[in-house]
């Protein structure tokens, strides 16, 4: 239970920072199921573009299938890829 509390508290801190700095794009590398990014998008009212990447096609396919209205998801290997590829 306490682990979930800390995750949700971190979302509150992230929302405050994002709003204060007027951030419009978030890149998340290797988030797994992308649930925190999805919740973050909901809390921010969809006003921030969130791109999640992972090398595991299961996570990316699931995010595209279930979370595509809120976040963008692409396969990306942090060991061999270039971040520039994600924005081209």
Which features does this protein show?
alpha/beta, three-stranded parallel beta sheet, globular, 88 residues, 49% helix
How do the strands and helices of this protein lay out in sequence?
Elements: H1 2-21, E1 25-29, H2 35-43, E2 49-54, H3 57-66, E3 72-75, H4 83-86
Parallel strand pairs: 1-2, 2-3
Helix pairs in contact: 1-2
Output the CATH homologous superfamily: Vaccinia Virus protein VP39
Low-confidence stretches are none
Helix content: 40-55%
What order do the SSEs take from the amino end to the carboxyl end, as H and E? HEHEHEH
The CATH topology is given as Rossmann fold
CATH architecture: 3-Layer(aba) Sandwich
Structure report:
The chain has 88 residues and is of the alpha/beta class. The chain has one domain: Vaccinia Virus protein VP39 (Rossmann fold), CATH 3.40.50. 49% of the residues lie in helices and 17% in strands. The chain contains 4 helices and 3 strands, in the order αβαβαβα. It has a 3-stranded parallel beta sheet with strand order 1-2-3, with helices on one face. Helix 1 crosses helix 2. The chain is globular, with a radius of gyration of 13 Å. The mean pLDDT is 88.
């Amino acid at each position: 239970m306490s682990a979930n509390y800390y995750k949700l508290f971190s979302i509150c801190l992230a929302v405050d920072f994002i709003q204060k700095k007027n951030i419009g794009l978030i890149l998340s590398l290797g988030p797994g199921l992308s649930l925190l990014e999805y919740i973050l998008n909901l809390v921010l009212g969809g006003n921030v573009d969130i791109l999640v990447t992972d090398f595991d096609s299961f996570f990316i396919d699931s995010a595209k299938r279930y979370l595509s209205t809120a976040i963008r998801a692409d396969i990306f290997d942090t060991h061999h890829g270039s971040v520039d590829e994600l924005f081209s």
